[in-house]
């Protein structure tokens, strides 16, 4: 494509971007936004799905913007745990995603070999996300633990790159691959927002703050890479080391906070409610009247318990 008026990097955006846009249009047309509009379910199944959601969170989809829920989201400590964790995690992601090829090349590989070596790294990242998602579904109260494990593995990878001799290509490349173990933070934290925030307006607010942190971290992270420090990039890897330690500490504190909050609610109500019981959340039988149209936050719903 050297003789083509479009540079090769532009073709990369076209080839990868066009299917993404088309897929987005397709999902917009066929993907229902609520269980009540799920065209692939029967009427009874749609009612059952609606009632199941109501029995868990009492957050019925509504287009009404509630200022009280917005204010509650701002005052909720969970919101800022989500923000700090994803911002810190995205600082590391900003380095890894933008400079993984440069890191590999700095190990002494040529451009073509660097491109080839990105394939097993991408495969490992895909496996990490899939396995983490399946494990979170299989094992109770494991989501934050899985993110912590991913960050610890990435921390080990950072040490392998930073501390080993630059001639040890194999060991340092293994470290680069282990960095991607932290990739499970984004999907699992999103799932925790879905599970642990009640109220449509409140959930939308928390999601917005979460994505602000995600974007800010990814923008700021690459600034740790200083070209004149190649091939060791000490500033970047020292920064990664510190950030992985910080995000692991924040995750542990967040899990402790949620666990203590669940125990406090159990004590106040004099009953134990398990948000992640193995046989699923209690579901009311469908009826002809349909579910009650609640839109309660997790603060307003005294039976709400947080997933870990």
Automatic annotation (TrEMBL):
Pfam families recorded: MFS_1
GO function terms (MF aspect): transmembrane transporter activity
Membrane topology qualifier: Multi-pass membrane protein
Superkingdom field: Eukaryota
Region ranges (Disordered): 268-302
Protein name: Major facilitator superfamily domain-containing protein
Cellular component per GO, a single term: membrane
Keyword annotations of the record: Membrane, Transmembrane, Transmembrane helix, Transport
PANTHER family registered for this protein in UniProt: MAJOR FACILITATOR SUPERFAMILY (MFS) PROFILE DOMAIN-CONTAINING PROTEIN-RELATED, PERMEASE-RELATED
Biased composition (Basic and acidic residues): 268-279
Cross-referenced InterPro entries: MFS (IPR011701), MFS_trans_sf (IPR036259)
Subcellular location: Membrane
Gene3D superfamilies recorded: MFS general substrate transporter like domains
Organism: Penicillium cinerascens
Listed transmembrane segments: 12-31, 80-104, 116-136, 143-161, 173-193, 205-225, 237-258
